[in-house]
Amino acid sequence: MKSVEQHVSDILAVVSRPEPIELDLLRAHGTVLAEPVAAEVALPPFDNSAMDGYAVRAADVAAATPQSPVTLPVVADIPAGDSSVSAIPAGCCARIMTGAPLPAGADAVVPVEWTDGGVATVSVRRAAEPGNAIRRAGSDVVKGAEVLSPGVRIGPAEIAVLAAVGRRSVSVYPRPRVVVLATGEELVEPGQPIGPGQIWESNSFMLTTAAIEAGCEGYRYGFVGDSPHEVLATVKDALAHADLVITSGGVSMGAYDVVKQVLQRLGTVRFEKVAVQPGMPQGYGTVGENRVPVITLPGNPVSAYVSFHLFVLPALRKMSGLPQEQLPSVRARLLAPVVSSPRGRRSYLRAVLDYDAAGGDVAYTALPAGKQGSHQLSGLAEANALVVVPEQVTELPVGSVVEALQLPRR
Ligand SMILES: Nc1nc2c(c(=O)[nH]1)N[C@H]1C(S)=C(S)[C@@H](COP(=O)(O)OP(=O)(O)OC[C@H]3O[C@@H](n4cnc5c(N)ncnc54)[C@H](O)[C@@H]3O)O[C@H]1N2
Ligand code: MOO
Ligand SMILES: [Mg+2]
């Protein structure tokens, strides 16, 4: 059987990072930056006041105390955005607001709270050190400095930085369009009644939303039955709209597992067994004239979920322009035993990971969440981690220290 690592690297070989596009700032939210961004001007661009108060020469108010305040004439009023006051003479001051340009001649700002708030003259009760309440030009960013590097995901903080350096649009990698198609004759749309032998379809909903949470455009193509004709027609149609097609179901040994036969006809897709539990039957390749990458996941719901995190996420990262990165991994102490894990396959058990302040160098506990069968979905919602049981390990007592992969936060 093939290793998990080999399967990830095989999948990464069939997907590629797209050419960057220019997007308006708000549309760029959630995408990955494709260019280094530098500040064209210093930030702040000019010396300015950090407080509402009076721009003074520190020397003029050096003797001010509550008992003997210093009174100065107010020769100008400087709101934010007003650069008309170029300088103040010695022995005078200007009323100034937060963010307003500091006039030449002034070297300190006295907050209004230290004064009587006068308009024509002001009485200052406290001395200000030179530089008090002044934000110097370039004290945030010097001119020409790189403020963002390529490969970062653009969230609100990055948007703030981009806007603050004057960018209205940026070069980013387009969000991958991920089309999800489930297969299975037994499937029924949720909301419709189910008959004997039928179940409600869930994988395409899970996979579509997981792709969206990973920053992609996710399209649920719904599901098709197990007729080769139907699967073929639907996959062909999906290809026109996809940078990646994810299928669920129909990849194991069953007589009606048609995904295999259909995709082999449409392109170069390999179907293999990966040494993992759950998620053993896997496929990947490219299909159609445009060689659209396809990843075929097993139909068992938990297998599809775990496979998404192990095999699809790395592909989505590459296609999004992100650097490769594993799920965050911590060491945790098991709160319940692992009774049996298949020899030769690495198990991923969904678990509840908790911080353990008393744990010393093992700072987490992990409690396997619910029943662990590939069809047993119910424990998934409470799980926030996958506990890794290595290939050669078949059981683990309570208290064993294990590796736990943290699932993306919701
Ligand atoms: N003889 C063998 N049988 C099976 C093997 C094997 O090696 N030899 N592997 C087992 C393993 S492991 C898995 S995992 C599954 C994979 O099956 P398929 O990918 O072929 O998926 P299906 O047969 O279509 O369905 C499996 C299971 O999952 C349910 N399912 C499928 N799609 C959905 C969906 N969209 N929403 C909810 N549930 C879904 C389906 O009803 C089946 O119960 O094969 C084992 N068998
Ligand atoms: O490998 Mo399957 O995913 O055990 O159910
Ligand atoms: Mg099957």
From TrEMBL:
NCBIfam families, A to Z: Glp_gephyrin, molyb_syn
Catalyzed reactions: adenylyl-molybdopterin + molybdate = Mo-molybdopterin + AMP + H(+)
InterPro entries reported for this sequence: MoaB/Mog-like_dom_sf (IPR036425), MoaB/Mog_dom (IPR001453), MoeA-like (IPR038987), MoeA_C_domain_IV (IPR005111), MoeA_C_domain_IV_sf (IPR036688), MoeA_linker/N (IPR005110), MoeA_linker/N_sf (IPR036135)
Family of this protein: Belongs to the MoeA family.
Annotated metabolic or biological route of this protein: Cofactor biosynthesis; molybdopterin biosynthesis
Keywords: Magnesium, Metal-binding, Molybdenum, Molybdenum cofactor biosynthesis, Transferase
Protein name: Molybdopterin molybdenumtransferase
Gene Ontology molecular function: metal ion binding; molybdopterin molybdotransferase activity
EC number: 2.10.1.1
Cofactor(s), by name: Mg(2+)
Residue span, MoaB/Mog domain: 179-318
One GO CC term on file: cytosol
Domain of life: Bacteria
Role of this protein: Catalyzes the insertion of molybdate into adenylated molybdopterin with the concomitant release of AMP.
Entry keyword Magnesium: yes
PANTHER family linked to this entry: GEPHYRIN, MOLYBDOPTERIN BIOSYNTHESIS PROTEIN
Biological processes per GO annotation: Mo-molybdopterin cofactor biosynthetic process
